[in-house]
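Sample intake — Gamma-tubulin complex component
Collected from: Miscanthus lutarioriparius
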Amino acid sequence: MDDQQTQDLVKELVHRLLSAAESGRGGGGRDTGGALRFAYRLLSSRLAPAVLPDEHALAESIKRRLAASGRPDDALSFADLHSKLSVRARPASLWPLLYLLDSLSSQRRAAAAASCLPNLPSAAPPRNATSGTAPGAGGRPGSRAHGAPPGGVVLVSKDPDNIREIALREYTELVIDETEVSEAALVRDVLYACQGIDGRYVRYDKSVDAYDLPDGVRVPRSTRTLVRKLCELGWLFRKVRGFISDNISRSPSDAATEVGTVAQAFCSALQEELSDYYKLLAVLESYSLNPIPTPGSDSGVSSNYLSLRRLAVWLAEPAVRMRLMAVLVDGCRGLRGGAMAGAIHGHAQHGDPMFQEFMGRLLRRVCSPLFEMVRSWVLEGELEDVFAEFFIVGQPVKAESLWREGYLIQSDMLPAFISPVLAQRILRTGKSINFLRVCCEDSGWADAAAYVGTTTSRGGLGYGETDALEALVVEAAKRIDRHLMDVIHKRYRFKDHCLAIKRYLLLGQGDFVQYLMDVVGPELSEPANRISSFQLAGLLETAIRASNAQYDDRDILDRIKVKMMDHGDGDRGWDVFSLEYDARVPLDTVFTASVMKMYLKVFNFLWKLKRVDHSLTGVWKTMKPNCIVSSPFYKEGTSIRAQFVSVLRKCQVLFNEMNHFVTNFQYYIMFEVLEVSWARFSDEMDSAKDLDDLLLAHDKYLNSILEKALLGERSQGLLRNLFELFDIILQFRSHADRWFERIYELQLRGRGKAKPKSKDTGSWLDGGRKAMIQLAGELFRKMGEDLDSIAKDYTASLDAFITQLPMQQHVDLKFLLFRLDFTEYYSRVSSNK
C-alpha cells in the first residue's frame, strides 16, 4: 500500500461505495475516514485462501457452474474472455482475479449481498460505549456490538472487535438448540459402549451390527458421525471379548476337543491386554464426571473434563490395538496350535514400532506352550501334545517302520518363524531318541540330552529367540545322532551285515556261489513242485561249510535262508530258488520289506547270470579238445570227419561268442556295478552323521545297482533282450548236452563198448559200422541245422541288445558297449545288413 496511485484508487472506491449506500438508505452520513482505514487494513492483511492457486481448475469450475445454472451463453463468454486474458496477462496473475469473482458470486448466492466486502463501518465503537453492550460484558452471547458488520469476511489475524468469539458463541448456541442430548450424556454412553454395554442413548443394533444413536434422538450430524466412530471401539471390544468367552468359558469335555494350550495362552494374552484397556476406561470414567465448559464460561472449570473430541484423542491408540486384536481374533478362528501361532506371526511383520512391540509381547505368551513342546521333544523324545497342536504328529506303527512312518511333520501346523530345515532337524532329533529307546533298547541317549538340557531351562525359550532355539536343537541333534550312529555301527554291526548281503545275496563270495551252483544244480533241474526247501537248506549249509563262508560270524550265517518263491505249472527249481537275509530289529529299519524285495530282484538277476555262466562252463567241459581228438569220428573217412569237424567248429564258434558276451557282461555287473557302488556306499556310510544320511546312502547304493544292472524302469526293453539272450544260451546248453550224449553213445558203439539194449531188427545199436556212420551223419546234419538256428536267433538278439545300449542314459552302459564291441565287429555286421 506504499504506492500513492493504489491509495488513490482505494480512496475513490470507498467514496463510491459509501455514496451508493447512503443514496439507497435515503441519507445518513458515515465516517469516511474510519471506512478508509478499515479498507487499508483489510487490503494489507497477509491472510490467503486455504486453497491451492490452480487457475485452470478454478476456471473450469466457474464454467461448469454457469452451464449447470442454465446460462450456457455466459459460460461460453466467460471461456472466451478467459482465453483472451490468458494470452495477454502474466502467468499466475489471473488466479486472484478469478478467485475474487468466484467469491463474490458465492457470497451473493448465499447471503444475497452486493459484494463480498462488508459494509464499511464507521469508526468502531469503544468497548465501554453505552450505546451498545460490549461483547463479553454479561450481555447475551449472540448480541453484536454496535456497528459490527452483519456479514462478510471474518478477520483472523487481528480481531479487535472480538468477532471470532462472537461467532463461536453463536455457533455454540445453534448447536445447543439442535441437540436434544447433552454431550456429557453422550460421553457416558460412549464409555459404556466401549465396554460392550448398552447406554441410555447409544445401543447395539443387531441389524447393522454396530453401536449407534437411534434415529429419533436429535443431534447434529457431525456429533452422530463422531459417536459412531468412537463406538467402533466397542464393536471391536465385543468381538474380542466374545472370542475369549467362547474359548475359555467351556465345559471340560468341549475344551478338550476345541481349545488347546496355544489358544488358551492367546486368550490369556488378550485378557491381559484388556486389563490395561479397563484401567484406561476407569480413568476416563473419572474424567467424565467433570463438567464440560462452554465458550465464555468461567475459567475456574476443571481442565480434566472429557468431551467427545477429547475422548477421540484418548481412544485413538487403544482403538488401534483393539482393531489389531480383532483382526487376530478373526484370523485365528478355527485354528489351533502351530497354525494359530503362525497366523499371529504373519501380522507381526509390520514397520510400526508400536505394532512390533505389541505383537512381540503377545507372541511371547502365545508361543510359550509351543516352545515347551519343542524342548520336550528334542531332549526327551516325548510328544506332550494333548490337543494335537504340535507340528510333529506320531502314529502307531511297527518297530521296523518307526523311523520312516512313526513321526511326521504336519505342514499346516508349522509356524512361519520355524524354517522347514529346522523343523526337519527337530523331527529327526526326537525320532532318534525314540528309535534308541524302542528299537535299540538303549538309554545312553539320556546322558547326551541331559548335558544339552543344562544349557536351557523350562521356559527359557521364547518367541524372537530363534537363534537360541536353533542352537539348542543343533547341539542336541549332534550329540544324540552321534550316539545313535555308534550304537548302529558298533553294537549292531551295520557294516558287517551290509557286507554279508553283498557276499551272499549279491553273489560276491565267488567260491560259495560256485559250490552252491554245483550242489543245488541237479536238485533245481527238477520241477518246482517236487523240490523240498528243507533239502535245499541242507545243501546251502553244505555250500557254506565247503567254502570260505564258514569263517564268517555265526550270527551272520544263521541269517542266510533259502526262500522258494511262488511258482506255477512248468516252473523249474531254477525259476523259484532264492536266498534271503533275516534283518532283525533295528536293522530292519534299513532293510525293510520293500528293500529286501529289491535285493531279491537283484539276486534273481545275478542268479540267472551265474546259471548261464555255469551252463557255458558245462558246455566247455563237454566239448573239451581232448574228447574231440580221441573220437572215432575224427579218425574216420574224409566225409564223416569233415562233417564232424564242421559241426564241432560251429559249436565252438557259437560257444566262444556266447562266452565272450557272458564273461564281459558278468565282469561289468560284478565290478563296474557292484564293486564301484559298494566302494561309494562304504565311504558314505562312514561319513554319515545321522540315520537319515545312512538311509539315504543305502537307498542311493541300491538304486545305483538297479539302474546300472538294467533293472530300472527305463531299461525294461533292454532287460527283455538280455533275458532272451540268456534263454538262447541255456537252450544251447540243453542241445549241446543232448548232442554230445548221442555222440558219446555212438563213440562207445564204435569202440565195441556199447551193450545192446534191444534185439529188434533194425535197431541202430545192431546195425554195424555202416549203420553207425549213417546215424552219425544224420546226427551231424541235424546238429548243424540246430546250431544254425540257434546262432541265427542269438545273433539277432545280441544285435538288438547292442543297438539299444547307446540309447541308455547311464554313462556306465557305454563302457559295457565298448567291452562287448571293442573290435567294432558287431557294428560292421549291423551296418552291412
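Post-analysis note: The mean pLDDT is 80.
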